[in-house]
């Protein structure tokens, strides 16, 4: 398959190339794309060098699939041009996620909504992806009424410049800032801009995207999203109220047997998920499972995943694998979900 990676020089794009190679996605021709400043730059894929091309040149090459990680405005402008040329776009930005004509997909949850007519497919927000992977089997069994989530998000979620800010601050270098405050040795309770209701856009993404992916508007969600100075992945404290009561050992077993989830929950031996352990892994790690003793039918848990992998690159490649396996693009490959 001819595969374009738009944003190939960025944090997510670089991870995308790594994941495509690792999972042996059947790439017959790789087309790396980035902004004007990177055209001609060489990137390595499976030991071979490829030159970065412009968006215009990439469209002319008519790729089967284009995986976008180049920001919302690039997606809004360029994804329809690829789609018009017959390319299926899988987009990592927030540009198309809440468009009612576009599918928002986490393969473990709702891959079955995809058809050959979907030419622009949205990859959800990283914090939402890891949460819904864990929510889905629980919702199917106990029916979720309400979710209260607080996040502890890695600087890698903001891209290359944020990682530079953290390391510059750590070395005492006065460099450019992408956050409004120092991030090193700090916690910033703001991700993305504020909206009129006092929530940030990131919080509203978690609220709205969860309902859309789960296909159930009755699920109430409230979120507080927070940036912390870590690198390995995002962590979430999640409180889930169910309609029906649950058995804690059954919850543990249900999660452990669900695709994409690893349960790490052994308090006696100090075992619980942490971003350092999740780093560069594709799974969603769930632990600290316990009853909320202040309310009936309510569970507390802790969910950690590498935001650049399952939160972005891995999820996008899994969508491409699903499309290929179902003959919705290119030639069939075996889907892993
Ligand atoms: N980081 C995460 O955890 C995460 C998770 C999910 C989704 N996302 C989304 O993925 C996207 C990229 O995030 P990132 O963290 O990888 O950012 P990043 O490290 O800043 O990389 C941005 C990439 O986009 C390219 N780009 C910028 N403007 C372009 C244009 N006009 N045409 C073509 N390419 C252009 C850049 O190319 P140059 O190098 O030439 O500037 C670079 O390759 C964003 O939309 C972000 O919201 C990120």
TrEMBL record:
It holds the Pfam family Semialdhyde_dhC. Homodimer. Phosphate binds at residue 97. Pathway: Amino-acid biosynthesis; L-methionine biosynthesis via de novo pathway; L-homoserine from L-aspartate: step 2/3; Amino-acid biosynthesis; L-threonine biosynthesis; L-threonine from L-aspartate: step 2/5; Amino-acid biosynthesis; L-lysine biosynthesis via DAP pathway; (S)-tetrahydrodipicolinate from L-aspartate: step 2/4. This is Aspartate-semialdehyde dehydrogenase. The active site is at 126 (acyl-thioester intermediate), 234 (proton acceptor). InterPro entries: Asp_semialdehyde_DH, Asp_semialdehyde_DH_beta, NAD(P)-bd_dom_sf, Semialdehyde_DH_NAD-bd, Semialdhyde_DH_dimer_dom.
